Amino acid sequence: MKRLSIVLMAVAMMAVAMMAAMPANAKVTKEYQRPSLHMVLLNTDEPTSEAVADLLPVVNDSWTDYEFPHLYNQFTIPTAVVDGGKPKGNMVELITRYGDAEKLKTMTMEEITELQSLMAGKQYNADLQARCDSMANEVAHQLIARWFNITPDGKYDCDTIFYYACYSAQQVAAADAAANTEMGAQLTLFNELMEPTIANTYVSFSKLAYYDNEPIAAFVRDLAIAAGFIADQAGAGGYASLAATAAAKIAYEATKNGYSAYTTTLLYRLAWNDSIYNEFSKVLKPTDESNPWTGTVDMAAFNAMNFNLELMGIDRCNTVTFPKKDQDDVQLTRRAVHANINKQLVRLQNKYEEFKPMVPILDKQAKFLIADMGTKESVKEGETFNVIQGKTNANGVTKYSVIGQVKVQKKGVWDNEVNMAEQADNAAFEGGAMEIQGTKLAGPGLKMAEVGMFVKRARAKKQ
Question: What sign does the dihedral 104-106-108-114 (CA atoms) show?
Fold first, then answer.
């Protein structure tokens, strides 16, 4: 079955299951809110190697046609592609500066250690962060304007906040239920959910790079050999140099071929809490004092306010790709860049629990359940997920708890990195039996799992 069919059926199943479980006065929990994400591309003028110079336009084009991760609310603001400044310490620059193998041997161990730190992105990341920090107030303003639907002529409404607050974990069912309640109930829901919904807004600033592997592999080899040589000079007796040389040559042979897509991502969270809202609300002038949904904004006061983004962390990862007979370099480059962006998001999810989305269970069979995720979400065989159940108490508040664990089955990972638009276009709705696509998971949590529940990656063990 094609992607559009999956989505429609998943929404329908969740809506039926959740509507049946919710009392008339149901509320959406404050405990969990579906994350909202805006992704920004950082463009920089950096040196590159001749071997991949012709492919760099493909790298940036790959960002343009990257399919946004559907497990997040897509938040679009004007700041989308920006100048990332002139960060120091990219790989080609470091190789150019320190690439002479004999000169490396004249460095001190302290200098070698500092060079290794630079290779890990010490200066590069700091320069990118300085550039992103300089945009924080502007981007935060845009996010808040987006949440409150603030228009240039000074009007606002809260429709976006209310929709996404209700959409969260309970999805369409909660939004439909809330829409059918009276204004008093809607205001209560709005007041309870506004702060956690807006506070769960993230911005990623990503710098893409593409390298041929051989120069980097050679530089890493020479650096390791130099470190062993310097250790011998300090009294290691010749053994450090021999061991380092042998290991470095083996590593070089294993890593010299192909190309690598690199993504450096800075993840920020919108700074938002009750006190910030109380200050912000002073510029809002509701049309009706008893109804906060619509009104006007004192734009001069709003533009003069200071808002901020809080840095959660910086991460860099790479994906290696090799030439193939049935794919040209453009195809390989685009696929590598897309795969690496997906990989980067998963790494950030594992680092920051609140950034990790819950995934709906689409179907349950006797021996496995099916969840709406796959290769695009970097799902791996044997990976562990928690089964999440939501229960609504007598007061209508939904609490989420882990009721079991399941693991991704062998050969059970869904390949969802194909063109979803083509899948949707080709979807058939003749009413016949539909095949549900997704990743298959099984384990002790399968017995408790039901359609309408969720799975979420188990907390990653510290490396």
Answer: negative
